[in-house]
Amino acid sequence: MKTTAKNRMIIMTVVLIVVLLLYSLRLMQLQVVEGESLAAQMERVRTTEQVIKAARGEILDRNGRPLAVNTIGRDVVINMAFLEKGTTNEVLLRLIRIMESADEDWIDNLPLTAEAPFRFKPGEAYETEIARLKNALGVAQYATADDVVYRLKEKYGLFEHGDKDDPVPYADEEFRKIAGVRYEMDRRGFSMSVPYTFATDIKIETVPKIKERSFELPGVDVVESTIRQYVSGTVAPHVIGQTGPLYKEQWDAAGKVQNPDGSVSAQIGERTYKMDDVIGKSGAELAFESQLKGIDGTRRITMNSSGDVIDVVEEKEQVPGNTVVLTLDSQLQKVAQDSLASNIRRLQDTKEERKGKEASAGAVAVIQCKTGEALALATYPSYDLSAYQRDYDQIAAGENQPLFNRALDAAYTPGSSFKPAVALGALASGTITPRTLYNCTYVYNRFAPEYTPHCESAHGNVDVVNAIRGSCNIFFYEAAYYMGIDTLDEYAARLGLGVPTGIELPENIGQVASPEVKAASPAYADDPQWRPGDVIQAGIGQQSTLLSPLQLANYTATLGNNGKRMEVTVLKSVKSYTFDETVYEHEPKVVDEVDAPEAFQTVREGMVAASRTGTAWATFANYPITVASKTGTPERGDGLYNSVFIAYAPAEDPEIAVAVVVEKGWEGYQIAPVARDVFDAYFFSRTGGSSTNYGELLP
Asked: Looking at domain 44-65+231-325, which of 3.40.5.10, 3.30.310.50, 3.90.1310.10, 1.10.1040.10 is its CATH number?
């Protein structure tokens, strides 16, 4: 027994010695033979490139007051790399429940009603989105909402969920909410390399509610981001516009450029974009995108094999976007908006039916005469830009189309506000002189008995100054008849009517009546032929003439400038983000000039007379500044009348021109108080009542 035990001890000792010898040899190999190689492995590092997002440039008014600025917010972001295959719908549903419990909104642009039975959202505002949805789903444009719902369920697996052996159908409410997110994910190109922003600018209180349930929400994170903030959201929303995501269809349509790291960017205009970038969608945000969009930077991050960051190098510095300074005066803009709204309500509350009570919408345009700079572009009804994303459905469905930019995009019959253009053309062409008299007997008999239009009253023998003052139709019938439509159209265009104003934003360029315009007009489809009576109707701003409020203001400014028509702009200057460099400064540009000083002086006398003793006397008879004005009461074709009012001041040396249009407002003089409020704010609401330093940036 002792021998056996001794032998075992010897064997174990030998084995132990062998093992230790092997370990020693291996250790010697590691230290001596492979030491350098292992040391190199220990020091082996990996580098990644990170994009440094450039700040978007801000938008200011002409006096340096902020309109659109940047602030820090918190976004809910979903990263596909961490989503387990087949769990997307369930993760989204959990996330939606958390957001609902926190009273948070999320991004949902699916143009289907929120509740079953599902229907397409009504209204013109959704027609494009509905067509885009059908295209995305591969269904015909005549497909019904039920067809679209079925296709959404099929595409995103939204028929049922839960245990494979005992699945549960998605409730209608669950389907609708998940489908809205999945559709938006596709539109934004959600992929392994492109994360999806589920919600923006959530409350700080919501962050822990998401973070503490991260184990149930793989791929979901809350990150800090730059949020666009509209300081006074109700001021000039149609002009400022909005930003939004770069959608897949826009990305696909753009040219592509290869980045140094092998990734691809879209080339849109003068800038390049990643798939998850924000881009200007409308208004100034879109028009000046090339200035507002900054240039992203890059940094190289070096980590060791343990994942520790050992070096950070900024390879390319980010360049913030430039600051865009608009020509708008935000305070004057607010005055114009508030006055327009209050005067429309006044008409609704105090006027009789068919005499202004039906007033419903309108616009105001204010232009600086000598520069062409737009000072105010007001639209009613309007909306709050800061609530655009959150309340889009309610805004889009609002009465009288609050999203419609009436100041630039609407086209109205000008009525008698067109008469100064006819007077100017007749005087400048030699058709009439300041002493020419036409006899107004109330009824116009040139085409009797077939056609006998009339005036508001019998003015007797009247010259051009008094014809403007009293808005005599018969004088302008005769002037237009003798001048002819070609000469009338020539001078109308040279005064800025029916031609582009030059503004950087989309606009309705309108049209001035002519044989060609009438023949192409749907309103005259039953009678496209040009008749002798058409020219006299054109002479009082009727027939097929349609003009935007901006065009009316520009035309009025041209009258005040003695025929010098300026290019209209909404861009005053562009500054670097830090204001240490001026990138662009607006220089007034003359686009046309009618050389007829005596004619313009005569028209001015008529428009001043209209303010003092004529159609606008109730508002401007005793005004401390001389105002040149003209009213208009154009027929709409439905038995009601729009109100139009144009004016410039001071008449002796004009500074600003104003055009006001109110739909269904009846007589033009009824909206003259809007122009008066604008003049009051411009001339008397500044320090010392002086506008000497008007337009300078605030310190």
From this structure: 3.90.1310.10
